Amino acid sequence: MAQTEQALVLISKMVKSPPLKALYLFNSSALQGFPHSHQSISFVLHLLISSNLFSHSRSILLKLISGQISASSFTPSSIFHELTLPHLDSCPTQVLLHEAIINVHVQSQLPKQALFYFNQMIGRGFVPRSYTLNSILILLIKSDSFEEAWRLFNETKSIVKLDVYCFGIMIKGCCEVGYLDKGFEILGQMEEIGFSPNVVIYTTLIDGCCKNGDIERGKQLFHKMGELGLVANQYTYTVMINGCFKKGLKKDGFVLYEKMKLAGIVPNVYAYNSMICGCCNDGKMNYAFELFDEMRESRVACNAVTYNTLIGGLCQERRVLDAERLMCRMKRDGLSPNLISYNTLIDGYCSIGKLDKALSLFDQMKSSGYSPSLATYNILIAGFSEAKNSAGVTDLVREMETRGHSPSKVTHTILIDALVRSDNIEKAFQIFSSMKKAGLVADIFTYGVLIHGLCVVGDMKEASKLFKSLGEMHLKPNDVIYNTMINGYCKEGSSYRALRLLKEMGENGIVPNVASYNSTIRVLCKDEKWREAGTLLKEMIKLGLKPLISIRNMISDYQS
Fold first, then answer.
1. Is pLDDT of 249 > 80?
2. In the prediction, which pLDDT does 533 show?
3. Are 501 and 468 in contact (CB under 8 A)?
4. Is residue 232 helix, strand or coil?
5. Residues 6+ apart with CB under 8 A from 259
6. How far is CA 67 from CA 40, 110, 346, in A?
């Protein structure tokens, strides 16, 4: 029997059957090796949709996309083409079928195809529901196609009946790609057409402001919410607190924290972690632990970030034994220390010179199932370099490479720094050369270490060459490099060069340190350039820097 005749026989059977019985016939015929045609597929889809059996019709469409329903007479693209031909537009279920086709392409993460059928639908004069538009917008934004989503939104907002959710999707998308102005533009459009933005919309935009560093606009939105009678929720407060602490506005963050508690809202783990991090960065460990205790009393579950932040804070204060005790407490509380926990503690022990303890933790980490990261090796290499333990450094580099980690730019800079501090400037430049051969681009820190080494040994000619090469590398000298060069020139008595760099720093908006001013003034006095020395002294005092008494006396003696 010809394929067309078989299809007609099947369709005639399905016509006489209830929808679910027809679906059973459709599926069982496929299992028996019946080659479906676009007619049989079209019939069953329209039947299911007209019977409101949308999940079943969606299942068939998904099988077509995945190739689970196939035949030599059609491909997925050809069957979808047949299902959406213009002569079918008068069919009462065609709009719903068109939307179903769009939505299964969205579900299958196929944005181009979903957009094609959506545009086709609009072109035919059909009006998709807001749900269909929303699903495509979400997929486009998730697929890093925000510009396409923005175009689609603007082209269809006068056609499709938009809902609040649609505006929320676009505002979130704007925030994710850093287009805050567009986010505010959409908020304005919402209000213009009579929608009242809810707490979720405002919180999304506030979060975008905070994440994109515009905390002031976030604050304005937060206050506007209050004026409109919208009650900030836990997430609203959390994003605001986090934004304030990231911007260094700790006082504002704590004010929000108190306001949050007065409103009867319990801070969540993310809010607590932001505040604890702020306290640790400021060295206020007592207050950090007060917050930690408050979390536990409020039954807010601490996570690994909470513990790692506190461990890091203790290590910064060189309270490494306390940090290790806290890691033991972390284990008792049912949380497994992660790679960050171990790296932080290893770094803490390296910083106080307890390399044996650092290696013991290193072994413990490996036995716990964690593979050391590049950062782990860099921490240990830095610790052994600081201790001038070259054998330990060599062993670590060898193990690092054996485990598949190639020495990074940071690794090379650490090794160069160790050699510079050991007065082995020649070997340091050999490492620098091998770094470039490995295709690694040195950064300002690498150059800073080398310039420092050359200045220490008094090779200002080579230091000057390296300093001038920064411009060719499109690198801007920082205050450390400037001050290093100035002190180097002062040591060799080059008052003119030191003074020139001081002026260059000012032109670049960088303030020289006290040592640079004192050294330059001293060498100017030695060269009897009293007027320049006096000018620098006044400039230094104006900046709030305190000159050495001997410098003041030297200039005062000359002036008197």
1. yes
2. 85
3. no
4. coil
5. 237
6. 16, 15, 53
